[in-house]
Amino acid sequence: MGTVEKTLKCPVCQDFFTDPVTLPCGHDFCLTCIQAVWETDGPNEGPFFCPECQVFLPSDLNLEKNTSLQTKVMDFTTNRPSTAELQTTTPSRATKSSSTIHCDHCIQTPSVAIRTCLTCDASLCQAHALLHQQRSALRDHTVVEVTGDPLSLKCREHRDELKLFCMEERVPVCCLCVLVGVHKNHKASQLHEACTDFKSMLETTMNQLLKRRGEAEHAIKDLESLYTQTVKSAADFRERVSDKYSRIRVVLDGDERLMMQIIDAEETYMTEWLEAQRGIMEAQIKEIDSLRASSKSLLQETNHLRFLQQITAQNLCDPVDLAPIQKVDKHLCDPEKLRTVERLVDDLSVALSQHFPRMWSYLSSPALDSNTAHPKLEISQDRKQVYWRQQPVTEAVSPQPYDSQFSVLAQESFTTGQHYWEVIVQEKPYWLIGVTAGPVEKKDGPSQRSTSLGVNNTSWCIYHGDGQYLACHDTQEKQLSVEKRVRKLGILANLQKGELSFYDADSMTLLHSFRVQCTEPLYPMLNPCIDVNGLNRQPLTLFLIKDPWNCEHKWG
Predict the structure, then answer these.
(1) How far is the C-alpha of 321 from the C-alpha of 228, rounded, in Å?
(2) Are strands 56-57 and 28-30 parallel, antiparallel or unpaired?
(3) Is the Cα dihedral 276, 282, 288, 290 positive or negative?
(4) CA nearest 474: which of 421, 523, 514, 525?
(5) How far apart are CA 83 and CA 85, in angstroms?
(6) Is 16 strand, coil or helix?
(7) Among 149, 150, 155, residue whose Cα is nearest residue 171
(8) How would you classify the pairing of strands 122-124 and 115-117?
(9) Torsion over CA of 28, 31, 33 and 36, rounded to 10 degrees?
(10) Are β-strands 115-117 and 143-145 bridged in parallel, bridged antiparallel, or unpaired?
(11) Helix or strand or coil: residue 421?
């Protein structure tokens, strides 16, 4: 609004002056506006005051029309743009004025309301709002920020002001609601008292939230530090274990080279000795062949003198004293040393086989069967995790080992062989993990297997409840002594021996072992237990390695 235009508008109705009058204090008003403020149609009904400066005026005040100001208004309004032009050029201002709340006391020329009186059920312009402050009869009225719906601030039943707050039902109420209405005998407070209390509570809550946020940020930093530490520790352990295996391989490779060298040396020694013996035998054969040839030649001689001369010259007059041909002693080539080498290698293999294969080499990760899961459980897409589906239980409920209906079975079962699997429990305060046996139960819906884990003679499990560990079978419970909290539970089913053993999968410490004599298929079973106040919402997760070296291991 321009400066000139502002001087030509009444401060009460906020519109151009109509029959303007000037008060002795110098402020201008529309005649009807000032009469409405004073609630009078003429003079001599004082006392009067100026709505702008609050100066009291004489009771015999005579209001005279300010013709000069009226002329200025007429000149200005004649030259200003039409209403259509204003709507075209300033649509946002027109839209804004259409939602303006007007004063209910300004009859002839509507004024913009700035306050709402809940006692009068009326919207007030600036002048009438001041009147409520000045007149003693109106001072007790409840005046609030202007609103188009005063009834929303009143009791819908009694049409009275909402001055109280019901502490039991947490709603604003009027006095009649507390005295004779539906909130009778309820504890109620003044609105400002309730606001003070709730603001104090909110401030406390905000401080607690701020503190909790700081704790969460600190926890995130700790988690990030632990993540970095975990990755670094895994890398360090991987390097150290690899180095140890490298050293073991160096020792084994050295031992293998030694044994191969002994076998090679033994082979060389024996082949050289046999070659030497062969040379001796061949020399004897050559000597024998030479004597036979000489003897044959002498036997063909017909001249006696010449025969005697030759036999004498060749020293063949006497019978030949030949050394006997020694038989080959096969025991001289007995590979006893080679057998000794093999025995030593067998001893090494036996010594190593006491530690191999590792139990982890039997590790498998069965998939969960969502068809057997309780409706309140949720199975992950990869079927390796089971969650509590519903919202946390608010009432104080302590899960027991007999809460076995909240279970899910694995798809795979087994009847023979040796099987091992691990379940990650981490910090879950409640869980139930084990094995159950039995035929498929056929009901109205899809077929389901029995899920009464730990409460019959064909199920075996370990239950953890807030730091306590119980071995459960056939409704019998045995408390286990566990020094360190189990983060991963390992289960080994050795059906050849009829044993079902539970381990701390990190330290491979045996927790408990059951004797199992069952001809029916055995199914791994997981029960995450109910969620108590949001503290047991973590999943149970089947541990998985991608390439176990015992590749022949199969599930039944």
Answers:
(1) 93
(2) unpaired
(3) negative
(4) 514
(5) 5
(6) strand
(7) 155
(8) antiparallel
(9) 130
(10) antiparallel
(11) strand
Secondary structure string (H, E, C) spanning 200-262: HHHHHHHHHHHHHHHHHHHHHHHHHHHHHHHHHHHHHHHHHHHHHHHHHHHHHHHHHHHHHHH
Neighbours of 371 (CB within 10 A): 14
Tokens matching residue 243: 């180095």
* Cα distance between residue 29 and residue 69, in whole Å: 11
Amino acid sitting at position 192: H
Give the CA distances from residue 132 to residues 13, 55, 140, 459, in Å, rounded to whole numbers and listed in that order: 17, 16, 9, 82
| Cβ-based neighbour number of residue 75 at 10 Å | 11
User: Consecutive sets of 10 residues in the chain, 556 residues long: mean pLDDT of each?
Assistant: 73 81 85 77 62 76 84 78 45 46 78 84 84 77 83 81 88 88 89 91 93 94 93 93 92 91 90 90 89 88 87 83 78 85 89 80 88 90 88 44 69 90 93 80 44 70 92 90 93 92 93 90 92 86 72 42
User: What is the Cα–Cα distance from 245 to 358, expressed in whole angstroms?
Assistant: 15
User: From CA 480, how far away is CA 514, in angstroms rounded?
Assistant: 13
C-alpha distance from residue 315 to each of 95, 289, 300, 309, 318 (Å): 153, 16, 17, 10, 7
Closest C-alpha among 71, 77, 21 to residue 51: 21
For the record, the structure tokens of 17 come out as 């002056």
| CA neighbor of 434 nearest in space, from 514, 324, 338 | 514
Write down the H helix ranges in 151-190: 175-179
Give the pLDDT of residue 471: 94
Running DSSP on this structure, what letter comes out for residue 34? H
pTM above 0.70, yes or no: no
Q: Which long-range contacts (CB under 8 A, 24 or more apart) does 172-177 make?
A: none
Q: Which residues contact 463 (CB under 8 A, 6 or more apart)?
A: 401, 431, 432, 454, 469, 470, 472, 477
Rg over CA atoms, the chain: 55
Q: For residues 38 and 46, what is the distance between their CA atoms, to the nearest angstrom?
A: 8
First to last CA, the chain: 89
Asked if residue 50 lies in contact with residue 25, where contact means CB atoms within 8 angstroms, the answer is yes
pLDDT of residue 27: 85
3-state secondary structure at position 372: helix
Selection from 120, 119, 118, 139 nearest residue 130 by Cα = 139
Kindly give the pairing relationship between strand 440-441 and strand 430-437.
unpaired
- H/E run at residue 270: helix 191-299
- Tokens 């869980």 identify what position? 431
Rounded distance between C-alpha atoms, residue 285 and residue 270, angstroms:
23
Structure tokens at 125: 């312009």
Between CA 34 and CA 62 the distance in angstroms is: 12
CB of 53 closer than 8 Å to CB of 130: no
Q: What's the half-sphere exposure (Cβ side, CA atoms, 13 Å) at 474?
A: 5
- Pairing outcome for strands 164-166 and 122-124: unpaired
Helix (H) or strand (E) holding 192: helix 191-299
Phi, psi dihedrals of residue 183, rounded to the nearest 5°: -100, 20
